[in-house]
UniProtKB/TrEMBL annotation:
Possesses non-specific lipolytic acyl hydrolase (LAH) activity. Hydrolyzes phospholipids as well as galactolipids. May play a role in disease resistance. Lipolytic acyl hydrolase (LAH). Its EC number is 3.1.1.-. This is Patatin. PANTHER family: OS06G0677000 PROTEIN, PATATIN-LIKE PROTEIN 6. The keyword Plastid does not apply. One of its GO terms (molecular function) is hydrolase activity. The lineage of its organism: Eukaryota, Viridiplantae, Streptophyta, Embryophyta, Tracheophyta. Gene3D superfamilies: Cytosolic phospholipase A2 catalytic domain. The nitrogen atoms of the two glycine residues in the GGXR motif define the oxyanion hole, and stabilize the oxyanion that forms during the nucleophilic attack by the catalytic serine during substrate cleavage. InterPro entries: Acyl_Trfase/lysoPLipase, PNPLA_dom. It comes from Digitaria exilis.
Length: 416
């Protein structure tokens, strides 16, 4: 109630354009809900925090989990990296060089960790995803690349790396069965204490719902129970299918690492979704636990997409780019076909609207933005991001919100 009252008070103090000036009531409704949504989620109105061109924009990469096992996201990242190499003139350039933070759920968590902690080429990461789609989408059947067990996929890729080893801020949401609550694995927390640093292979396996029954921090003080194996798969990523809101909130409330990010206008967010799956109506004809989880995950991803799009307001066309299958053709869609499809945009109260450009063309536009920002920073003396180099006594925003949800040694034995 307090948050709602504060939002309404802000609306009373904010002069709104008249419907005649805006042209129609749809535009007026969008302005009103953009103010309310942004103030409720982020604590500030986009009108109160204009973009500061001298500071630069924080570049955020968000990658969904989903039923396609990360196929579209992996293909999009491979195309993006090739375009970045071409525009920058550096054949060794990597996706991680052009982003300040990565967030990923499910298969997206694997991709984010592979690119930011392993510095794996995007083409190589795509090959791993293609060969192990079932594992990355939450099924325990052996992958084509590693046949012994699902965990071996992640062990082979990450070895002894931990969350702290990521070169830049990394966020991977998971679901803790012991507390029935989400938990965010965060590099910002990992560099502060071993109690929040976890082996990356366990983190990614847990995010996909195929990991060991218990995930423990390096010092053993923090323990989580991953989604139970054999429960249909996908439950872990369905809880937080679209991590964009997690990433944006982390940036806007982490002034130590992102001191100049005051509002949505100070961010450039690339959000990668999945290929369109079979229609929900078809899935409900023969309902199963896995089909219901897929529907729940897709619904959560779309709701986050629309909420974040509203929060960006007039900046969403340039500062918030969402890539996903349009779902018009129905049935299974290959990743390459989804990149050739026209993009879709969330419209207030009206679902999705087809855009003029294809997903691939929009990715090329993002690459141009990222390269321009990269060159601008090379000429600027003001750092946009200050990545934590070592442990500090201060807890970050993500740990402050999740400390109450973790299972400890003393309490895990009492959990059902």
């Amino acid at each position: 109630m307090a948050a709602t009252a504060a939002s309404l008070a802000l609306l009373d103090r904010t002069p709104l354009p008249s419907p005649a000036t805006l042209g129609n009531s749809d535009r007026l409704s969008q302005e009103i809900f953009s103010i309310l949504e942004s103030n409720f989620l982020f604590g500030a109105s986009p009108m109160e925090a204009p973009y500061s061109s001298s500071a630069g924009r924080v570049r955020v990469l968000s990658i969904d989990g989903g039923a396609d096992g990360g196929l579209l996201a992996a293909a999009a990242l491979a195309r993006l990296e090739r375009k970045l190499q071409d525009l920058s003139g550096n054949p060794e350039a990597r996706v991680a060089d052009f982003f300040d933070l990565a967030a990923g759920s499910g298969a997206g968590g694997f991709l984010a960790a592979a690119l930011f902690a392993r510095r794996m080429p995007a083409d190589e990461a795509r090959d791993v995803v293609v060969k192990n789609r079932k594992v990355l989408s939450g099924h325990r059947g052996g992958g084509m690349l590693f046949r012994r067990s699902p965990e071996s996929v992640f062990r082979k890729v990450f070895g002894e790396l931990t969350v702290r080893d990521s070169t830049k801020p990394l966020l991977i949401p998971c679901y803790d069965m012991a507390t029935a609550a989400p938990f965010v694995f965060s590099r910002a927390d990992a560099v502060e204490a071993d109690a929040f640093d976890f082996p990356l292979w366990q983190v990614c396996a847990a995010a996909c719902g195929v990991g060991p029954a218990e995930v423990a921090s390096l010092d053993g003080r923090t323990r989580l129970r991953a989604a139970a194996p054999g429960s249909g798969g996908g439950g872990a990523s369905a809880a937080v299918a679209n991590p964009t809101a997690v990433a944006v909130t982390h940036v806007l409330h982490n002034k130590r690492e992102f001191p100049f990010a005051a509002g949505a206008g100070d961010l450039v967010v690339l959000s990668l979704g999945g290929s369109a799956a079979a229609s929900p109506a078809a899935s409900l004809l023969r309902p199963s636990s896995s089909s219901l989880l897929r529907i729940a995950g897709a619904c959560q991803a779309d709701m986050v997409d629309q909420a974040v799009s509203m929060a960006f307001g007039e900046n969403r066309g340039r500062n918030y780019i969402r890539i996903q299958g349009n779902g018009i053709a129905g049935g299974e869609t290959t990743a390459e076909a989804a990149l050739a499809e026209r993009g879709v945009e969330s419209v207030l109260f009206r679902g999705r609207m087809l855009m003029e450009k294809t997903n691939g063309e929009r990715l090329d536009g993002v690459a141009e933005q990222l390269v321009r920002e990269h060159h601008r920073r090379l000429e600027s003396k003001t750092p946009v991001v200050l990545v934590k180099p070592s442990a500090t006594p201060r807890t970050s925003s993500s740990s402050a919100s999740t400390l109450i949800t973790v299972s400890t040694n003393s309490s895990s034995s009492e959990s059902p």
